[in-house]
Amino acid sequence: MKARLLVMLVAATCAGPAGAQERTRDQWLALAKADFAVPAGDTAIDLLVEMNALLASPDPVLRDEVAYSAAAAWIVGKRLVAPDDLRRLLTLWTANLDDGLGAA
Q: What is the pTM of this model?
C-alpha cells in the first residue's frame, strides 16, 4: 500500500500541470506532422515543459524531430513563449545539464 501511494505521488509530481496526461509517441509525432500547431486546450509552454523528458530520450525522433524542433518552432519561429516562460524553461533546461554529472 505504501509503495503504491509513493508511485502515485511520484507520478503526480512528474505529470506536469494538473490534469495533464502523458502523451504517447504517436501523439507527439502527430504534433510534429501538424507543423507544431498547438492543440486546442494546450499552450506552447505547457507542452514544452511536458516534453522536457523527451530532450534526453534515446529515441532520436522524439528527441530531435519532436522536442528540439517544437522548441525551435514555438520559441524562435512562432514566438509563442512569453519572456517569463522562457526564464522558466531556462531554469528547467539548465537543471538538465547536471543530470548524471559525477556518475561513474
A: 0.75
**CA 80 to chain centroid:** 15
Give the C-alpha separation, 99 to 89, whole Å: 16
The per-residue pLDDT for range 10-19, each reduced to its tens digit, is 333 344 444 4
Per the CB < 8 A criterion, the answer to whether 31 and 70 are in contact is yes
Q: What are phi and psi of 79, to 5 degrees?
A: 50, 50
Pinpoint the alpha helices (H) of 1-104: 2-14, 25-33, 44-50, 60, 69-71, 83-96
Number of H helices, E strands in the chain: 6, 0
What gap in Å lies between CA 94 and CA 92, rounded to an integer? Answer: 6
Nearest to 46 by CA among 88, 8, 96, 95: 88
